Amino acid sequence: MELSYHRSLPPELQIMPFQLRCMELIGLVGPKGRFYRFVLAFGWGTFVILLPKSVLGIGSSELDAIIKGFAELLFEGNLFIAVASLVPKLPLVKRLLHVLSEIFRQATHDKHDAKDQCYALICEQNSKIDKFCKFYFIYCCFGPFVFCIPAMVTSYVRYFGTTNNGTNANGSEHLWFELPMEQEFYWLPIRTNFACYHLFLALSLSANCVCSYMSVIKVSTLLIMIKYCSLVYRLVAIRIRDLGKLPPGRKQDETDEDERTKMVMVKEVVEMHEKALEATDLVEKVINIPIAMQFMACILFWCMTMVYVSTNINFNLFNVMVLFWLSLIETYGYSYLGTELNEDAKAVGHAVYDLPWYEDSAQLQRYYRLMIQRSQQNTGVTAAKFFIVGIEKFGKVVNLSYSYYLVLKDVLDRL
After folding, report:
1. CA nearest to 228, candidates 327, 337, 384
2. CA distance 20 to 169
3. Number of Cβ atoms within 10 Å of the Cβ of 207
4. SS3 breakdown of the chain: % helix, strand, coil, rounded to 5?
5. Which spans are transmembrane here (predicted)?
6. What's the rounded Cα separation, in Å, for the pair 75 and 77?
7. Which one of 15, 44, 106, 216 has the fewest CB atoms closer than 10 angstroms to its CB?
C-alpha cells in the first residue's frame, strides 16, 4: 500500500503518521516486499502462544489456572485475529487516507494559516493524537516485562529456597516454577525443569513483545480512525458556519455575484460532507469485525474476572486483572469515540439549520436540505452490523456481563 499522496500533505496535516510508521515497520503498508515481516511476527506469536495453548491445553486442573489460561488465550487470540482481519482491508485503509487527505485540503484551501479555524483544529487534533499514540506505545513496551518479571522473581525465590533434591526447605513439596502464561509448551517440562523453564521464559518474552506491537497497531489505529471521522464532521460544521458570514444572494436574481460566490462555497461544503460520509463508511467496513470481537471479549473477561475474584485471590490475579482492565478500557474507548462521532455527525445538520437559510435562493435551500437529510441518518460505526457502538451500548454490556456472571457462578456452585 503506497502512501505517496497522503505524505504529500504538510507534516502537521498528515493523517496517522505514527501508526503508519508502525505498520510500515512490520510490513503491513509500504513496499510489498516487506509483508514477510508481518508473516514472521504473526507466525512467531502463533507458534509460541496460540498454537500450544489451544492444542495442548493449559496444563493444570486448578480453576484459577484454567481461568487465567483461558483469559490469556482470549486476549491474544482476539488481538491476532483482529490484526489479521485488517490485512484484506488495507485497500480500504488506503482509500480512507486518500479521502481524509482531500477533506483536509478542501478545509484548509491548501493554505497553512494558523489563524484559519480548520487548519488550527486539524493541527491541534493531530498533536493530541500523536501524543496519545506515543504514550500508548511506551505503555505497551512495559507489557511483556509486567507479565514475565513477577513470575520469574517468584520462581527464583522458590528455587533458591529449595534443597538440592528439588523440594522446599521443609521437604514437603516438589518445586514448581511460576509461568508467565498458563500453558503447555510442546511437551517440555517447563514447570519443573530449570533449563526448560528459562527457555520458555525467553521465548514467551519475545512473543509477548510481538503481542504488544500488535496491540499498538490494533488499538491505536482503530481508535484514531474513529477520531478522524469525528474531526471531518467538525470541519464540515465549521465551513457551514462560515457560510453564515456571507451576504445572502437575492432570491429573484440567480446571476447575482453574491449568489454565485455562495453557490460555489455551498457546493464545496456539500462535497466535503459527502466525503465525510464516505470516510465513515470506509472506517465502518474496516473496523466493524474487530470491534464486535472486542465487545464479546469484554463480556467474557468481565465474567471470568468476577468468577476468579469470588473463588480465589492469589498471585495469578494480577495478570488476570491486567488483561481485564486492558479489555475494559479499550471497549470503553471505542464506545466513547462512537458516541462522539454520532454527535458530531448530527451537529452538521444543526449547523445548517442555524444558518439564515430563509434569506437564500431556492437552489441554495435544496443543498441545505440535502445536508440536513444526510445528517439525520444514524451515523456511526457498528459491531458487525449488530448495533451502533456508543456509551449506551457499553453500559448494556456491563449489565449483561454481570447477569452472565451470576448464572455462571450458580452453575459452578452446583458442581
Report:
1. 337
2. 54
3. 22
4. 75, 0, 25
5. 38-59, 136-157, 197-217, 291-311, 317-337
6. 6
7. 44
Residues 334 and 329: their CA atoms lie apart, in Å, by 9
The CA-based dihedral angle spanning residues 94, 96, 98, 99, taken in that order and rounded to the nearest 10 degrees = 160
DSSP per-residue letters across 158-191: HHHTB-TTSBBTTS-SB--PPPSS----TT--TT
Q: Which of 43-52, 140-149, 163-172, 337-346 has the lowest mean pLDDT?
A: 163-172
C-alpha grid cell for residue 94? 488506503
Give the pLDDT of residue 162: 66
β-bridge mates for residue 382, sequence order: 388
Residue 306 sits at the vertex; the CA angle it makes with 300 and 308, to the nearest 5 degrees, is 100
Residues 6+ apart with CB under 8 A from 17: 11, 130
Please provide the DSSP assignment of 41-99 as one string.
HHHHHIIIIIHHHHHT--S---HHHHHHHHHHHHHHHHHHHHHHHHGGGHHHHHHHHHH
Residue 227 has pLDDT above 90, yes or no: yes
pLDDT at position 396 is 85
- Length, in residues, of the chain: 415
